[in-house]
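User: Can you help me understand a structure? I only have the sequence.
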Amino acid sequence: MYGKAHYDFVRVIEAAEYAGEHWLQVHCGETYEEFAALPTVIEFQGRMYGKMSWNSDTRKAAYKVGAPVARIVKEKGRTHD
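Assistant: Let's start by predicting it. Here is the structure, written out as tokens:
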């Protein structure tokens, strides 16, 4: 596993709706490690978007509403990596 970066915010390049699906494009680097370090899920304007893909040439990552995501439940007193 690559080192995960902690993000509080990501820069949204474009928010769009295509064929009834909501998509976001966010800034990303050109390496897989940079893509892997992005958050798996982001919230934008009240919607949850799951990370779907990335283009190293344009340095953009795509997120989509409806991507299969699950909330991690942390037990009190336990820590998870």
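Now, to help you interpret it: The mean pLDDT is 83. The beta strands are 12-18, 21-27, 41-44, 47-55, 60-65. Let me know which part you'd like to focus on.
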